[in-house]
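re: ur question from yesterday

yeah so i grabbed the chain u mentioned. its 123 aa long if i counted rite. heres the sequnce exactly as i have it in my notes:
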Amino acid sequence: MKTMMKAATILGLLVAAAVAADVSGKWAGDMPGRGGDTTPTTFTFKVAGDKLTGSMTGPQGDIALQDGKVAGDQISFTTTLEFNGNSVKLVYKGTVSGEQIKMSREREGSGQPREFTIKRSGT
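ran it thru and got these C-alpha cells back, copy pasting raw so excuse formatting
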C-alpha cells in the first residue's frame, strides 16, 4: 500500500511539472501607473521546476523578482521598491494563456489590484 501511495505521489508531481506553463524568456507590456498612465515594462523569467526567478525592467532599471512560483498556468512573484527611504512590496499574479499572461499587481496589504497583459517578446 505504501509503495502505491509513493508511486501515486511521484506520478502526481511529474504530471504537475509537465503541465506547468513554460514562461521562460522575455515578456513585455504596458504596466498601469498613476493617473491612468502606462509604462513599457519588460519581464525576464527563468523557470526551474516550480520556482520562478528573473527581473523586471522599466524606468527604475532592473528589479529582481522575489518569491516566484509557477503552478500550472498560474505564476506569482513579488518585487520590492524603494521610495524616499520607504520599502514598498508589490505582489504580482498572472494567468498564462498561450503567448500572453494576464497579470494583476497590488501593493502588499492594501490597494486595488491593477490589471495588465504582457506578451512573449522576441527580443
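noticed a couple things. The beta strands are 25-32, 38-48, 51-58, 61-64, 66-71, 74-83, 86-97, 100-107, 114-120. also The chain has one domain: 2-120.
anyway ttyl
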